[in-house]
Amino acid sequence: MKALFVAWRSGGTDNGAWGPVGRLEHDGELYRFCYTHGARTRGFRPFPGMEDLESVYESVELLPLFANRLLSPSRPEYDAFLRWGDFDPGHPPDPIAILGVSEGIRQTDAIEVFPCPVPDVGGCYINKFFLHGVRWMPPGAIEHIARLNPNDKLLLMPDPCNAHDRNAVAVRTDAERMLIGYVPRYLALDVIRLLYTCGTREVELAVERVNPDAPLQNRVLCRMHACWPETFQPCSDEPFLPIPSAVRARCRS
Fold first, then answer.
1. Domain with 129 in it: what CATH number?
2. How far apart are CA 171 and CA 133, in angstroms?
3. Are strands 17-26 and 31-35 parallel, antiparallel or unpaired?
4. Distance CA 195, CA 199 (A)
5. I want to staple 131 with a disulfide (CB 3.0 to 4.6 A). Which of 6, 43, 110, 220 is the partner?
6. Total number of domains constituting the chain
7. In terms of residue numbers, what domain contains 110?
8. In a domain, 245, yes or no
């Protein structure tokens, strides 16, 4: 993973809309951040220290906006934090890889980060993400989540009547058909496209791991596998495209 998008929520907590406003890249030597056309959304204000939408910001160290979203290695729960994301504490990955799974979520702002999916060596779609919306589920769903096991099959159910997001994709258990959460909003539209293009049998979702000691936002790590249609180009709509003309439109794979 070499690139992440930065999503910002416009509006309130309950009815806000998420959209990309920036892109962070790491080439092994330098971190680079630039704004995307989504940053021109009404109400968005540039991040502190990066006020110019037309500039590319470079640093040898991870920029503070993102470094502050990583748990410090000195914290006693750091090893557990890595395991929640299916990382090996003995061999910590690149910070940008951790951010790509943890999403850099903080309760004090309206920003998340996420990777743009790329095909694997076999040309398939493979992605891992934490189940969203768990805190809004009824107590019975939380109890059911505690009984899930790695590799348990999950079902993807488009929810076009969702009052907050018409592109929402619900996640249910296979056996009981119990609603336990949602696909992250930044992936939902692409998941719907894959369901219709590949067919439901070619789009598989399973439990990667359950973290009973983690906050609800990190409770269930899911693994998704699907075909990669020839015409499928995730993160290619205008809000994802960089504003600075010197930055290539497509992320490195």
1. 3.30.70.2330
2. 10
3. antiparallel
4. 5
5. 220
6. 2
7. 3-115
8. no
